[in-house]
Amino acid sequence: MLEARHTAGAKRYKYLRRILKFRQMDFEFALWQMLYLCVAPQRVYRNFHYRKQTKDQWARDDPAFLVLLSFWLCASSLGFAIVLQLSVMGMIKLLLWVIFVDCIGVGLMVATLLWFVANKYLQTQKSDQEVEWGYAFDVHLNAFFPLLIILHVIQLFFIHPLIDKEWFMSRLFGNTLWLIALGYYLYITFLGYSSLPFLRHTVVLLYPAMLIVLTFYIVSLPVGWNFTQGLMWFYRYRVGHYV
Q1: Total domains, the chain
Q2: To 5 degrees, how large is the angle CA 101–CA 58–CA 192?
Q3: What digits encode the pLDDT tens for the residues 20-37?
Q4: pLDDT tens digits, 106-125
Q5: Transmembrane ranges (predicted)?
Q6: Segments forming the whole domain that contains residue 7
Q7: What is residue 53's predicted lDDT score, i.e. its pLDDT?
Q8: What does each C-alpha distance from 30 to 36, 47, 65 come to in angstroms?
Q9: For residues 46 and 36, is the Cβ–Cβ distance under 8 A?
Q10: CA gap 157, 64 in Å, rounded
Q11: d(CA 171, CA 167)
Protein backbone atom coordinates (compact mmCIF):
# COMPACT_ATOMS: atom_id res chain seq x y z
CA MET A 1 0.00 0.00 0.00
CA LEU A 2 1.29 3.43 -0.91
CA GLU A 3 2.35 5.68 1.93
CA ALA A 4 -0.21 8.40 2.64
CA ARG A 5 0.71 11.74 1.18
CA HIS A 6 1.38 14.73 3.39
CA THR A 7 -1.37 17.29 3.44
CA ALA A 8 -0.70 20.71 1.98
CA GLY A 9 -0.90 22.20 5.47
CA ALA A 10 1.68 19.78 6.84
CA LYS A 11 4.04 20.57 3.98
CA ARG A 12 3.73 24.31 4.58
CA TYR A 13 4.30 23.83 8.31
CA LYS A 14 7.44 21.78 7.68
CA TYR A 15 8.72 24.40 5.23
CA LEU A 16 8.12 27.33 7.60
CA ARG A 17 9.63 25.42 10.53
CA ARG A 18 12.91 25.12 8.62
CA ILE A 19 13.11 28.76 7.60
CA LEU A 20 15.28 29.75 10.59
CA LYS A 21 17.35 26.56 10.68
CA PHE A 22 20.16 27.77 8.45
CA ARG A 23 22.38 24.75 9.09
CA GLN A 24 19.77 22.52 7.49
CA MET A 25 19.54 24.60 4.31
CA ASP A 26 21.43 23.80 1.13
CA PHE A 27 22.61 27.28 0.14
CA GLU A 28 25.08 25.92 -2.41
CA PHE A 29 22.28 24.25 -4.35
CA ALA A 30 20.10 27.38 -4.06
CA LEU A 31 22.95 29.45 -5.56
CA TRP A 32 23.25 26.90 -8.35
CA GLN A 33 19.55 27.33 -9.08
CA MET A 34 19.87 31.12 -9.15
CA LEU A 35 22.76 30.93 -11.60
CA TYR A 36 20.98 28.57 -13.96
CA LEU A 37 17.73 30.52 -13.79
CA CYS A 38 19.67 33.27 -15.54
CA VAL A 39 21.52 31.15 -18.10
CA ALA A 40 19.64 27.83 -18.53
CA PRO A 41 16.34 27.78 -16.60
CA GLN A 42 15.29 24.42 -18.09
CA ARG A 43 17.90 22.69 -15.92
CA VAL A 44 16.31 24.05 -12.75
CA TYR A 45 12.95 22.46 -13.50
CA ARG A 46 14.55 19.05 -14.03
CA ASN A 47 15.29 19.11 -10.32
CA PHE A 48 11.61 19.68 -9.57
CA HIS A 49 10.87 16.41 -11.39
CA TYR A 50 13.45 14.65 -9.24
CA ARG A 51 11.87 16.09 -6.08
CA LYS A 52 8.46 14.80 -7.15
CA GLN A 53 9.89 11.30 -7.63
CA THR A 54 11.77 11.23 -4.32
CA LYS A 55 9.62 13.36 -1.98
CA ASP A 56 6.21 13.24 -3.66
CA GLN A 57 5.88 16.99 -4.05
CA TRP A 58 6.68 19.51 -6.76
CA ALA A 59 7.23 22.51 -4.49
CA ARG A 60 10.50 23.22 -2.70
CA ASP A 61 10.92 21.81 0.79
CA ASP A 62 14.12 23.76 1.48
CA PRO A 63 13.71 27.53 2.16
CA ALA A 64 17.33 28.30 1.21
CA PHE A 65 16.26 29.81 -2.13
CA LEU A 66 13.77 32.11 -0.37
CA VAL A 67 16.38 33.20 2.17
CA LEU A 68 18.93 34.04 -0.55
CA LEU A 69 16.26 35.84 -2.58
CA SER A 70 15.48 37.93 0.51
CA PHE A 71 19.15 38.88 0.72
CA TRP A 72 19.15 39.97 -2.94
CA LEU A 73 15.97 41.96 -2.36
CA CYS A 74 17.54 43.80 0.57
CA ALA A 75 20.86 44.46 -1.19
CA SER A 76 19.30 45.61 -4.46
CA SER A 77 16.74 47.80 -2.68
CA LEU A 78 19.58 49.44 -0.75
CA GLY A 79 21.33 50.15 -4.05
CA PHE A 80 18.14 51.56 -5.56
CA ALA A 81 17.61 53.76 -2.48
CA ILE A 82 21.14 55.16 -2.87
CA VAL A 83 20.53 55.92 -6.56
CA LEU A 84 17.27 57.65 -5.66
CA GLN A 85 19.05 59.53 -2.84
CA LEU A 86 16.45 58.48 -0.28
CA SER A 87 16.64 59.14 3.45
CA VAL A 88 17.10 56.27 5.91
CA MET A 89 13.35 56.16 6.54
CA GLY A 90 12.71 56.28 2.80
CA MET A 91 15.14 53.42 2.34
CA ILE A 92 13.26 51.32 4.90
CA LYS A 93 9.91 52.12 3.26
CA LEU A 94 11.30 51.18 -0.15
CA LEU A 95 12.68 47.90 1.19
CA LEU A 96 9.34 46.99 2.77
CA TRP A 97 7.50 47.90 -0.44
CA VAL A 98 9.77 45.81 -2.67
CA ILE A 99 9.60 42.77 -0.38
CA PHE A 100 5.95 42.74 0.66
CA VAL A 101 4.31 44.26 -2.44
CA ASP A 102 6.54 43.78 -5.50
CA CYS A 103 7.71 40.27 -4.60
CA ILE A 104 5.29 38.68 -2.12
CA GLY A 105 2.06 40.58 -2.81
CA VAL A 106 2.27 40.40 -6.59
CA GLY A 107 3.58 36.85 -6.29
CA LEU A 108 0.58 35.73 -4.24
CA MET A 109 -1.81 37.15 -6.83
CA VAL A 110 0.05 35.79 -9.87
CA ALA A 111 0.63 32.36 -8.29
CA THR A 112 -3.01 32.05 -7.21
CA LEU A 113 -4.32 33.12 -10.62
CA LEU A 114 -2.08 30.73 -12.57
CA TRP A 115 -2.68 27.93 -10.06
CA PHE A 116 -6.43 28.32 -10.64
CA VAL A 117 -6.11 28.58 -14.44
CA ALA A 118 -3.78 25.57 -14.65
CA ASN A 119 -5.99 23.32 -12.53
CA LYS A 120 -9.25 24.53 -14.09
CA TYR A 121 -8.40 24.77 -17.78
CA LEU A 122 -5.00 23.22 -18.57
CA GLN A 123 -5.37 19.75 -17.05
CA THR A 124 -5.20 16.72 -19.32
CA GLN A 125 -8.45 14.78 -19.31
CA LYS A 126 -7.00 11.65 -17.72
CA SER A 127 -4.93 13.40 -15.05
CA ASP A 128 -5.58 12.80 -11.35
CA GLN A 129 -2.89 15.27 -10.27
CA GLU A 130 -3.16 18.97 -9.47
CA VAL A 131 -0.74 21.87 -9.51
CA GLU A 132 0.35 22.53 -5.94
CA TRP A 133 -0.13 26.13 -4.85
CA GLY A 134 3.33 26.04 -3.30
CA TYR A 135 4.77 25.03 -6.66
CA ALA A 136 2.95 27.92 -8.36
CA PHE A 137 4.56 30.31 -5.88
CA ASP A 138 7.96 28.68 -6.45
CA VAL A 139 7.54 29.31 -10.18
CA HIS A 140 6.92 32.99 -9.42
CA LEU A 141 10.04 33.18 -7.24
CA ASN A 142 12.08 31.49 -9.95
CA ALA A 143 10.87 33.96 -12.56
CA PHE A 144 11.24 36.94 -10.24
CA PHE A 145 14.95 36.42 -9.56
CA PRO A 146 16.34 37.21 -13.07
CA LEU A 147 13.90 40.14 -13.30
CA LEU A 148 15.26 41.45 -9.99
CA ILE A 149 18.87 41.12 -11.13
CA ILE A 150 18.21 42.95 -14.41
CA LEU A 151 16.03 45.79 -13.09
CA HIS A 152 17.37 46.25 -9.56
CA VAL A 153 21.05 45.40 -10.00
CA ILE A 154 22.31 45.72 -13.59
CA GLN A 155 20.10 48.71 -14.38
CA LEU A 156 21.38 50.67 -11.37
CA PHE A 157 24.76 51.23 -13.02
CA PHE A 158 23.15 52.92 -16.03
CA ILE A 159 20.41 55.06 -14.46
CA HIS A 160 22.34 58.29 -13.87
CA PRO A 161 24.81 58.17 -16.77
CA LEU A 162 22.32 57.04 -19.44
CA ILE A 163 18.76 55.94 -18.64
CA ASP A 164 17.55 58.95 -16.63
CA LYS A 165 17.93 61.32 -19.59
CA GLU A 166 15.51 62.74 -22.12
CA TRP A 167 17.30 61.08 -25.01
CA PHE A 168 15.85 58.49 -27.38
CA MET A 169 18.87 56.26 -26.71
CA SER A 170 18.15 56.45 -22.97
CA ARG A 171 14.59 55.32 -23.52
CA LEU A 172 15.67 52.60 -25.96
CA PHE A 173 18.30 51.17 -23.62
CA GLY A 174 16.21 51.35 -20.44
CA ASN A 175 13.02 50.00 -21.99
CA THR A 176 14.97 47.19 -23.64
CA LEU A 177 16.16 46.11 -20.20
CA TRP A 178 12.51 46.01 -19.14
CA LEU A 179 11.64 43.94 -22.22
CA ILE A 180 14.39 41.44 -21.42
CA ALA A 181 13.44 41.26 -17.72
CA LEU A 182 9.73 40.76 -18.35
CA GLY A 183 10.51 38.32 -21.15
CA TYR A 184 12.60 36.29 -18.71
CA TYR A 185 9.77 36.36 -16.16
CA LEU A 186 7.18 35.15 -18.67
CA TYR A 187 9.44 32.49 -20.20
CA ILE A 188 10.51 31.01 -16.86
CA THR A 189 6.88 31.02 -15.72
CA PHE A 190 5.92 29.19 -18.91
CA LEU A 191 8.70 26.64 -18.35
CA GLY A 192 7.45 26.00 -14.84
CA TYR A 193 4.01 24.96 -16.02
CA SER A 194 5.04 23.32 -19.29
CA SER A 195 7.37 21.01 -17.34
CA LEU A 196 4.39 19.46 -15.53
CA PRO A 197 3.43 16.32 -17.51
CA PHE A 198 -0.27 16.55 -16.60
CA LEU A 199 -0.81 20.01 -18.12
CA ARG A 200 -1.47 20.84 -21.79
CA HIS A 201 -1.64 23.96 -23.96
CA THR A 202 0.62 25.86 -21.56
CA VAL A 203 1.74 28.15 -24.38
CA VAL A 204 -1.37 30.22 -23.63
CA LEU A 205 0.53 31.43 -20.56
CA LEU A 206 3.37 32.74 -22.74
CA TYR A 207 2.32 34.07 -26.14
CA PRO A 208 -0.51 36.47 -25.23
CA ALA A 209 1.47 38.02 -22.36
CA MET A 210 4.60 38.35 -24.52
CA LEU A 211 2.54 40.04 -27.23
CA ILE A 212 1.22 42.58 -24.71
CA VAL A 213 4.72 43.30 -23.35
CA LEU A 214 6.17 43.66 -26.85
CA THR A 215 3.33 46.01 -27.87
CA PHE A 216 3.95 48.27 -24.86
CA TYR A 217 7.68 48.27 -25.65
CA ILE A 218 7.19 49.26 -29.29
CA VAL A 219 4.63 51.97 -28.47
CA SER A 220 6.75 53.41 -25.64
CA LEU A 221 9.66 54.39 -27.88
CA PRO A 222 7.96 56.93 -30.19
CA VAL A 223 5.64 58.34 -27.50
CA GLY A 224 8.50 59.10 -25.08
CA TRP A 225 7.57 56.70 -22.26
CA ASN A 226 10.65 55.86 -20.19
CA PHE A 227 9.72 52.88 -17.99
CA THR A 228 12.60 53.38 -15.57
CA GLN A 229 11.81 57.05 -15.00
CA GLY A 230 8.24 56.00 -14.27
CA LEU A 231 9.46 53.43 -11.75
CA MET A 232 11.71 55.99 -10.06
CA TRP A 233 8.86 58.47 -9.79
CA PHE A 234 6.59 55.75 -8.38
CA TYR A 235 9.11 54.65 -5.75
CA ARG A 236 9.66 58.25 -4.66
CA TYR A 237 5.89 58.74 -4.46
CA ARG A 238 5.48 55.59 -2.35
CA VAL A 239 8.09 56.67 0.20
CA GLY A 240 6.99 60.31 0.20
CA HIS A 241 10.24 61.64 -1.28
CA TYR A 242 9.97 64.13 -4.13
CA VAL A 243 12.73 65.82 -6.06
Answers
A1: 1
A2: 60
A3: 677 778 899 999 999 999
A4: 999 999 999 999 999 999 87
A5: 65-87, 94-118, 143-163, 175-193, 205-228
A6: 3-239
A7: 79
A8: 10, 11, 5
A9: no
A10: 28
A11: 7
